[in-house]
């Protein structure tokens, strides 16, 4: 159940989930999408990006996507 994202006041919010530690044996972006039932989240400005915090891989692309949705 996505109570928070279904809140009318948040309907125009930008949602970015950073899937960290993609260099380890952890959930992939696709697995996270399945676990949280991503496609059922009604927000059109949403994304899940795989990142590696130690190297910064994926962070620049993630922040560029995020900032482009704020405009």
Mean pLDDT: 88
Q: Class by helix and strand content?
A: alpha+beta
Work out the helicity level. 25-40%
Low-confidence stretches: none
Strand content: 5-15%
Question: What is the spatial order of strands in the main beta sheet?
Answer: 1-2
What is the alpha-carbon Rg in Å? 13 Å
Number of strands: 2
Distance between the termini: 29 Å
Note the main sheet: 2 strands, parallel
Number of separate helices: 3
What sequence of helices (H) and strands (E) makes up the elements?
HEHEH
Shape: flat
Could you characterize the architecture of this molecule?
By secondary structure, the protein is an alpha+beta fold. The protein has helices at 3-6, 29-35, 59-70, and strands at 15-19, 46-50. It starts with a helix and ends with a helix.
